[in-house]
Please model this.
Amino acid sequence: MSETPSEKRRILVIDDEEAARYGIGKVLEREGYQVEMAPNGKEALQKIQTFVPQTIISDINMPEMDGLSLLRVLSQQGLRIPVILVTAYGSESLAIQALRAGAYDYLTKPFEIEDLRTVVRNALERSILQEENRRQFLQLEKALKELRETQDERIYAEKMASLGRLVAGFAHELNSPLGALASSLDTIDRTVSRLQNERRGPVDQTSSQDPDRLLPAMKESMDVARKACHRVDSLTRTLRHFSNLDQAPRRSIDVRECVENTLALMNRELGQEIAIQKTLEDVPLVECYPMDLNQVLMDLLMNSKEATAGKGEIHISTRVSEKSVVVESATTEKGSPRNNST
Model:
């Protein structure tokens, strides 16, 4: 491949012999490369920090730090720079050892200039390919990160939408018993006030505020208040089970309990025009994250509701299939059955 001045490739030449270092450097500069030099591996490591070579040509035998030691340090630092080692004639076994240590190639002194050009060109091509692969990998990693973030945001938005519907339905379910409780307490309060007034004066047998006539109203109001309290207690316990509060995040649960809790909390969301049919067979306990399972069941029921167009029947069932527990919903809307399972 040809080099232009605007595309100068960086080469670091390391040799403790100044004449050899200078000669190799001049040949490479005439080829259009940008060249830096160092007398040993120790100084070379310092230059690498700022020069960042794309190829290194290094003698094997040097003081301070030899070529093999330099290879090991580069490997430890995670620097994947092609290294061409230069060795004396008759030291091929040492060169082979260097190749096993991670060297790209080697030249035996004395070598032809054309051999130097060829091995440097090939090393640079490999370096450029590595840089391109690294760049594409970083781009791919960035794209995957953005995709995960987008997917996480979508999942979060869907969960928040489901939670919003759940909270709205739960608030509506609470409003009825709370309204009944408030009304009953008001009736009891007014009845007690009338009884107190009766005690202060003579009893009029014809009065509509006769205690014997007020007590039944008070008892009826107390019964309504008691039922309202039971309903609120039932709703809050269902919500606690659904959200898995005060429980281990992962535990063994009865899937049917999750189905019942989800149906109870989605009662208003499903509406009065959708009939729920349940066939909950005995199934073994399942080791899972109940909150996540409840979320899946909510999504399953929401899909079933959409399939009925807000009017029809949802048949939900549990069964065992081989080694799995299956929750299945079948919808009927205008006589057209549809199935979903998880």
